[in-house]
Design goal:
Helix content: 10-25%
Mean pLDDT: 77
Number of domains: 2
Low-confidence stretches: 2-44, 251-286
Structural class: alpha+beta
């Protein structure tokens, strides 16, 4: 998708069918995308975003866009997107979504979530590819046909995110692939910056504004019914940023958890209790995506146990037997179970609910977060 001109921008199979009353047929061709304005000298560093251009045409476009009213009616949020596939495909999807977040939205977390939501909305829409990488890199082989400008204008070679910025983008991508929803953009499938005024947006409803990005949905009934294909393509352009896209065999670390004598028993108990959530005795210790009622999440920076609980309750909504495990370090957040001892040692927060009638319990790392009167420490 184009930043300047167009827009857009592990766990369960997609289940929900969402519709939006909006008269543009679903199968309509995508709008023609054109090259965005080049802003010379606007980058102050690897993570800086281009400043809005100040030429007369751009200023006129911003004034025009500001006068376009928001569509009326209820803004329907997307259903949570739970990614369930193999470790290699999870890694590829995460890095494709992280690249869209960083190159389209910069380092603002709210901006990144909005872009990620549009990508995931497209994955579910029949007019677009059914994989994350397929959506992000759609048309990237053509200089004027890409859906996200950064995939065909050389940005991936010209700009390299800092280690901190890339880690943040991957964290946001991971959270979105674990079911986090950005409700402010609803079921938007397109966006553009406010300093351009492409002709295609006249046929769409403007439904959200996130800083300098304007978000749109097609008019007419839209059905988000497509199932995620589960097989992410390898993107050669991401090889310099992503191990999963380097064309090499993707190896999963040795992750013996339950049988590992190096893992202290109390740590095993926090994530492998007896009961319906535990693996059967004698089950092979082979890395696999967690079941649909177990969430492995990188926690938002600056949060507290109370805010983590709110996030856990959101993820576990409608799931009677649920476990939510959180880490403050994205690099140590595992993608599969069993998890390595290094990940077990870094657990920062655990939320558990074992039945619809039992009260939920939570524990956290009291070395990082103050304990309360109940002494609920990991």
């Amino acid at each position: 998708m184009r930043r300047a001109r167009v827009g857009l921008g592990a766990c369960l199979a997609l289940l929900a069918v969402a519709t939006v009353p909006v008269d543009h047929p679903v199968a309509s061709p995508l709008p023609r995308l054109t090259t965005p304005p080049i802003v010379r000298g606007a980058f102050d560093g690897p993570d800086a975003m281009p400043l809005p251009p100040a030429d007369a045409q751009s200023l006129l476009a911003r004034a025009f866009n500001a006068q376009v009213p928001m569509a009326r009616g209820v803004l329907v949020p997307a259903q949570p997107f739970y990614l369930r596939t193999g470790p290699e495909d999870i890694a590829r999807a995460t890095d494709c979504l992280a690249a869209a977040d960083y190159y389209e939205a910069g380092v603002g977390i709210s901006d990144q979530r909005a872009v990620a939501q549009v990508v995931l909305n497209r994955v579910r829409h029949r007019a677009f590819p059914s994989t994350v990488c397929g959506v992000v890199f759609q048309g990237s082989e053509r200089r004027t046909g890409c859906q996200f400008t950064f995939t065909c204008d050389g940005s991936l070679l010209r700009r390299t995110p800092s280690a901190v910025a890339w880690q943040q983008a991957r964290r946001v991508a991971t959270e979105m692939l674990l079911g986090q929803v950005e409700p402010i953009v609803g079921l938007a499938t397109h966006y553009h910056t406010d300093w351009v005024s492409p002709a295609w947006d006249r046929t769409m409803d403007k439904i959200a504004v996130v800083r300098t990005h304007l978000f749109y949905r097609w008019r007419g009934q839209q059905i988000f019914e497509m199932r995620y294909s589960g097989v992410e393509p390898e993107i050669a352009q991401l090889a310099r940023l992503s191990d999963a896209h380097r064309g090499e065999d993707f190896s999963v670390p040795d992750v013996e958890l339950a049988a590992s004598s190096a893992v202290p028993a109390p740590h095993i108990a926090t994530i492998m209790p007896t009961g319906p959530l535990a693996p059967p005795l004698g089950a092979p210790s082979v890395a696999a995506p967690p079941p649909s009622n177990v969430f492995l999440v990188t926690l938002p920076a600056g949060g507290s146990p109370a805010s983590f609980r709110a996030l856990a309750e959101q993820r576990c909504a409608g799931v009677s037997q649920c476990r939510f495990i959180g880490w403050t370090d994205a690099a140590r957040t595992p993608r599969a179970l069993p998890m390595p001892g290094s990940a077990v040692d870094a657990i920062a927060f655990v939320f558990e609910r074992h039945s619809t009638t039992a009260a939920a319990s939570m524990r956290w790392d009291c070395a990082r977060f103050a304990p309360d009167a109940s002494g609920r420490c990991i």
